[in-house]
Design a protein that fits this description.
68 residues, two-stranded antiparallel ribbon
């Protein structure tokens, strides 16, 4: 899964710490998501999308395709 969290965060001019504060999580959580070491829970992904005013699939891109 690819994520664009860092792109959206930097576009706002926010540090990882500032984004973490706005979402109520630790800076380490933001770092882990941005470096693909952690997939956020659905509630956290929804909060992230709402904060950036985008849909979840714009933040987290899944390249999986079902087998025919």
């Amino acid at each position: 899964m690819e994520n664009r969290l860092k792109h959206y965060r930097e576009a706002q001019g926010w540090s990882q710490g500032e984004l973490a504060r706005r979402l109520g999580v630790s800076r380490q959580t933001i770092n882990a998501v941005e470096t693909d070491k952690y997939d956020p829970s659905l509630p956290l992904a929804l909060r992230m999308a709402r904060l950036f005013a985008v849909e979840v699939p714009e933040l987290f891109i899944d390249h999986w395709e079902p087998e025919a």
